[in-house]
Design goal:
It comes from Tumebacillus algifaecis. This is DUF4399 domain-containing protein. About 20% of the residues lie in helices and about 40% in strands. It is an alpha+beta fold and about 150 residues long. It has a domain of about 100 residues: Sandwich (Immunoglobulin-like), CATH 2.60.40.10. The strands form 2 sheets. Strands 3, 4, 5, 7 and 8 form a 5-stranded mixed sheet that branches. A 3-stranded antiparallel sheet has the order 1-2-6, with no helix packed on it. Strand 4 and strand 5 form a beta hairpin. About 25% of the residues have low confidence.
């Protein structure tokens, strides 16, 4: 009985070791390192490729405020997954005002800019995956605050 139990223990230890060695080390991947899958392979989806997302901005000015409506297709704005892992077909918008390098993360279809100065303003919006990788889709527009 003792020999049988010892044999089982040794066999279980060898099997567990083999499984751990076979798996190798686990590589941690941060959301920023995960690449989007915008151009799926034929093996992954057959012969049908998903349609590329589109983005168009409409601006309504009232006083010193501008309400921007983002019209999108083939993408779901997903505030619940913002800065999370990439999920194909989901994401958010990066908005740049007047050439600023500071981006505004937009997670909904409308966004309001307040306290704008009088004059011409330029907006650039780009679509991004949940983990901020670009979909390579953008729109620009100009508007005037009187």
């Amino acid at each position: 009985m003792y020999l049988h139990r010892t044999t089982l223990t040794i066999t279980a230890t060898i099997l567990a070791s083999a499984l751990l060695i076979g798996c190798g080390t686990k590589e941690k991947i941060t959301p920023g390192q995960q690449q989007p899958i915008d151009e799926p392979t034929a093996a992954a989806i057959g012969s049908q490729a998903p349609a590329k997302p589109t983005l168009n901005m409409k601006v309504a000015v009232s006083g010193n405020q501008a309400t921007i409506t983002f019209l999108t297709t083939n993408i779901k704005l997903a505030p619940e997954h913002y800065s999370g892992l990439h999920i194909p077909g989901e994401g958010h918008i990066h908005l740049f005002v007047d050439g600023s390098v500071t981006r505004i993360g937009v997670k909904e279809n409308t966004y309001r800019l307040q306290n704008l100065t009088k004059g011409k303003h330029t907006l650039e919006a780009t679509l991004h995956t949940n983990n901020h990788q670009p979909y390579n889709v953008k729109d620009t527009t100009e508007f005037v605050v009187d």
